[in-house]
């Protein structure tokens, strides 16, 4: 019996295409390792001693310790927000590949300074911001590069490899910290080794990138069609004169001509971007789509997803996990749960259940987890009348709630805003709308990561979970009413989903025969 390769995985049959995807997807490592490996390394004894983060030194100033910890953790995210904005300018000026390489170099130089900052608090903050510039730029250029080399029918699958690599590195980072904590002495070498590890795979990918080329779409936009056709044929593993290559290349060149016609001013990218932004606000249909995406990004960040990820080791200890090593193992398991369910989401659930249903199911799970954690932190944990068995059961349920939260975050708003932002807009306003949403994403992520330690101190833990639960509840109402299902809807017909009254958007749909006709 002969086994056939599924249509959605045909790209993997071409070794060069697979090599390109894996190489470029390594651009997600800086962000993933920062959320896992670096955030956990901040709790290593060697790092806390070097940068004055020991609680014994801040007995009378818990807020000061929370501020110092939050600054060290969050300043990379602040740099990433700026890097994402800068990359939108560089992508068209330098090209996708050279922008990717430059971002890798900026991040690597920042990481190098960070590793050898040797207890100098100011230098560490500078290194965190500088490295964040590169990490943030990579979060924009990496998905863009992948989307431009992927066949249309598997674009979602190929781009999702970016998130899979990110979450795999995130989970691995916790286990690396665990190994360092039990096998290495608490000296500077310990945290330096942990924080420098991502330099190896990113460095390998950087040198491997010199065997790659620009994306066919970018080459065509730069009036280099012969190079674009040759690269497209190599990516597809076909002859440049084959019918399949001719058909796909004709579509690329047609889209490039339409884009130039829309811009009307190829010498001024700023003007065309401003014109596109004004169109998103002047056209009522576009305006609804734009602000729905902004609302989705706002809700996704303020449900606490990245706040929990960055401080998950401390959260596990608050939930009853004893010992730093055990909390690191639990954090690694948390990362694995996110990885597994994100893979299930991106490679199955999203096209089976749909975007809307996944978002609402995910928010519901997040809400349930936050409500229980608020009850545990505010009542059950501090109850002096409860028996040891009852407290143990409540603690186990709190730990389980953290994993329930991970499942909800992974199948819901962890990935949907990225996907929604690429599919609900027409080509001429997609770049500007996506740029605005990613900028909002990064600035809100910085805010959440920065204030989370302070929220735990000033709101006594339980108040933070109650706040996040309220955001989840509001999100269920807002997205439940405003968010239409886009599964299977051609981009050319997205406007039909946003016609009519906004409060009836939840039941907007396009008939099956109309979808097939649109495709």
UniProtKB/TrEMBL annotation:
The chain crosses the membrane at residues 72-90, 102-123, 129-146, 158-180, 192-212, 290-312, 332-353, 360-379, 399-420, 432-453, 465-484. InterPro entries: MFS_dom, MFS_sugar_transport-like, MFS_Sugar_Transporters, MFS_trans_sf, Sugar/inositol_transpt. It is found in: Membrane. PROSITE patterns: MFS (PS50850), PROKAR_LIPOPROTEIN (PS51257). It is a multi-pass membrane protein. Pfam families: Sugar_tr. The keyword Chaperone does not apply. The keyword Transport applies. Keywords: Membrane, Transmembrane, Transmembrane helix, Transport. Residues 20-487 form the Major facilitator superfamily (MFS) profile domain. Belongs to the major facilitator superfamily. Sugar transporter (TC 2.A.1.1) family. NCBIfam families: SP. This is General substrate transporter. It comes from Aspergillus lucknowensis.
